[in-house]
Write a structure and sequence with these properties.
Layout (H helix, E strand, L loop, with lengths): L2 H8 L20 E4 L5 E6 L5 E8 L13 H8 L9 H11 L2 E7 L2 E9 L3 H13 L5 H20 L1 H13 L14 H4 L4 H11 L6 E6 L6 H7 L24 E6 L5 E10 L7 H12 L5 H9 L6 E10 L5 E12 L3 H18 L3 H13 L1 H4 L3 H13 L6 H11 L2 H11 L6 E6 L1 H9 L5 E6 L1
Parallel strand pairs: 2-6, 7-11, 7-12
Antiparallel strand pairs: 1-2, 3-5, 3-6, 4-5, 8-10, 8-11, 9-10
Length: 465
């Protein structure tokens, strides 16, 4: 008998491995604490995540910007990393690079966010740099002037971008002119040109303090004395007590109408259709998420199935809900919108079919198969979505900004899974009523105005692009 035959006869055969019992995934739960200077801290130990993510949430909302200085929050955010009382802008950038760290900051309606990512082994040094940026930013005249010039250079490019232009017009249409949410987040040419280092420092001194800030720290914290490290870095940041905010609820006019931003010769029409609706504090939010996903959340959604696959009008149309701002009392608003682009000759037919999809949805509802696919995708991809420390930190920071409980995201997936077809249908139908939508079209008005008017979806006006 050959060696091969012998080995086969003496080989032990084992049964094929079987899959284990599925385990329910849960969004990571943070631990909450507070430093002596009043800074709130949320920490989340994520074994194996050797890149630590830190998010600083500053209570410096856009509606706190002084009148006529829209954009000062953005310039302040960008200037935080442009030098401190210890380092010039170039030195600060070099120190970050030596740590292998990235530091970014941006301003939005809820406030200013500062984001740090750094290898765990370099966390002490990077946290010290972050603390310096928050504690004693230089706001040097030449650096602020450079940031203002850069911002002024960006504005024409944003205006030329059809999607950005549509978003700007929709905000102006929906919200009262006196409301900060109606105006560009990063300011206009007129308001940004007024910003100088004195106005940036004044905004910083009025709104940036540890007592109203939150630090979110996520990563593998094995062997790291995080309490001691925070005390030595962010803990030395000082400031006065919290000052009560004066933010008012968001209101909007969703009377059905169409606004065309004229772009003569455009070969495509950018469309953005929207209104405001419930935010994450509302019990309808999970059902609204499921229903909106069925309508336009993926390539197999109803809108794509009709406008892309059947008609070939577009490369894709999406429906989404985006939180604008939430108040401490649990009130807030989200932008509910449908966006995409279609070729100019088919602008009218595409809108006609889009409205037919909405009316059919209201008349017939979603199918169980649509609901099941949406829930499977929304819940099933969650573990992959939160593989990195940065993604977990970003979501926890969102919860802080929106005044949500620490376990909101964990409970959200349970609520998504429990959402039924009837609930999802009612939520999406209420979110996108065909007669209560404001439609913005960026395109060639001479070619698209008459076909759009013929649809009867609202009064049509034309503005210059």
């Amino acid at each position: 008998m050959s060696d091969a035959a012998v080995s086969l006869t003496t080989m032990e055969f084992h049964p094929r491995p079987e899959g284990g019992t599925p385990r329910v995934w849960a969004f990571p739960a943070p631990e909450r604490g507070r430093l002596g200077n009043g800074l709130t801290v949320l920490r989340c130990h994520r074994p194996g995540q050797q890149v630590v993510a830190v998010e600083i949430v500053l209570d410096a909302p856009l509606d706190a910007e002084p009148e006529g200085l829209d954009g000062v929050a953005t310039i302040m955010a960008r200037a935080l990393s442009e030098g401190t009382d210890k380092h010039t802008a170039e030195e600060f950038a070099a120190e970050l690079e030596r740590c292998g760290a990235t530091l970014d900051a941006h301003a939005d309606h809820p406030g200013v966010r500062v984001s740090l990512e750094v290898p765990a082994s370099r966390l002490p040094k990077a946290l010290g740099l972050l603390a310096d940026a928050l504690r004693a930013p230089a706001f040097a005249d030449d650096e602020v002037d450079r940031l203002v010039r850069n911002r002024l250079d960006e504005i024409p490019h944003e205006t030329a971008n059809p999607a950005r232009r549509a978003a700007k017009q929709l905000a102006a249409e929906l919200f009262p002119a006196a409301s900060r949410v109606s105006r560009p987040r990063q300011g206009t040419e007129e308001t940004v040109a007024r910003i100088d280092s004195a106005s940036v420092r004044a905004f910083y001194e009025a709104h940036v303090r540890p007592a109203t800030a939150t630090a979110v720290v996520v990563g593998d914290l094995t062997g790291i004395d995080l309490d001691g490290l925070l005390a030595e870095t962010l803990g030395v940041w000082t400031g006065d007590e919290a000052r009560p905010g004066t933010a008012s609820p968001i209101t909007a006019d969703d009377t059905g109408r169409v606004v065309i931003v004229d772009r003569p010769g455009a070969v495509q029409t950018q469309l953005l259709i929207g209104r405001i609706g419930p935010d994450r504090h509302d019990s309808v939010w999970p059902a609204q998420v499921v229903g909106t996903y069925c309508l336009g959340g993926t390539l197999t959604s109803r809108l794509d199935r009709v406008l892309r696959e059947e008609k070939g009008y577009t490369y894709g149309v999406r429906a989404f809900g985006q939180v604008l701002r939430s108040l401490p009392d649990g009130t807030g608003a989200a932008m509910l919108a449908i966006s995409g682009s279609v070729d100019t000759p088919h602008t009218g037919p595409a809108l006609d079919d889009l409205w037919k999809v909405l009316r059919t949805l209201a008349a017939e509802g979603l199918t169980d198969a649509e609901r099941d696919a949406a829930v499977h995708n929304l819940v099933g991809v969650a573990p992959l979505r939160y593989e990195t420390a940065a993604s977990v930190a970003d979501t926890l920071a969102d919860q802080v900004e929106q005044h949500l409980p620490d376990d909101f995201q964990a409970r959200l997936y349970q609520r998504l899974d429990a959402t039924g077809t009837v609930e999802a249908t009612a939520a999406v139908v209420n979110a996108f009523p065909p007669d209560r939508l404001v439609t913005v079209l960026v395109g060639d008005a001479a070619r698209i105005k008459d076909p759009v008017e013929a649809l009867g979806i609202g009064e049509v006006t034309v503005v210059t692009g």
